[in-house]
Amino acid sequence: MTRTPRHPYLLDPDKTVLLIVDVQERFRAAIPSFDEMLAGCLRLTRTFQALGLPIVVTEQYPKGLGHTVEELRTILDETPIPEKTTFSALGCHDVRDRLTLEADAVVVCGIEAHVCVQQSVHDLLAAKRLVHVARDAVASRDPANAQAALVRLGMAGAVLTTTEMAAFELLGDAKDPKFKDVQAIFK
């Protein structure tokens, strides 16, 4: 059976990695939309886990900003979380190697949208990766900074998406055996 050609901006589960950028404890009180952003990150994490897809997580200077929030850490199991000091996740060798060698496409979520997310996305675009930024899973301390980052990233070539759009693109078909598992994440 021949598969129908798909648009190149649609996510392919065989070639996609999730990047969770710096969802750390110190940001909880500083970011007004933290709970909504975290909910989006959790939805994406659960989707990638349900589909058996790779997840990469980073922490920006955890001595000062704390570690990845408990809600994410508990569902990430044994996923390694490298420490970084560069704003771009690609400044961390382990992360750069995984994202540029293992993936044609990267779904990005996390904080802060206008600093670490923005610089990571630009570096991924420079590495010729298709990058989807989940609008409902990124945030900044100042919402205006997050909005400016999203506009800039869209203009630079990133695909602005949502957690649900990304999940169902990766799923692709209601006949997929994982359909009910993924659908339940969004109910």
The gist of it:
By secondary structure, the protein is of the alpha/beta class.
Give your account of this protein's structure.
This protein has 187 residues and is α/β, with parallel strands linked by helices. It has a single domain (14-185), classed as Isochorismatase-like (Rossmann fold). The protein is 45% helix and 18% strand. It contains 9 helices and 6 strands; from the N terminus they run βααβααβαβαβαβαα. The protein has a 6-stranded parallel sheet with strand order 3-2-1-4-5-6, sandwiched between helices. Strand 5 (130-139), helix 7 and strand 6 (159-161) form a beta-alpha-beta unit. Helix 2 runs parallel beside helix 4 (70-76), helix 2 (34-50) runs parallel beside helix 8 and helix 6 runs parallel beside helix 7.
Question: What is the CATH topology classification name?
Answer: Rossmann fold
Radius of gyration: 15 Å
Q: Total number of β-strand segments? A: 6
Number of domains: 1
Spans where pLDDT lies below 50 across 5 or more residues:
none
CATH superfamily name?
Isochorismatase-like
CATH architecture: 3-Layer(aba) Sandwich
* Helical residues, percent: 40-55%
Biggest sheet features = 6 strands, parallel
Order of helices and strands: EHHEHHEHEHEHEHH
Mean pLDDT: 94
* Class from helix and strand fractions: alpha/beta
Number of helical elements: 9
Q: For the terminal residues, how far apart are their CA atoms?
A: 33 Å
- Please tell me what the overall shape is: globular
What does the oligomeric state look like here?
single chain
CATH class: Alpha Beta
Strand order of the largest sheet: 3-2-1-4-5-6
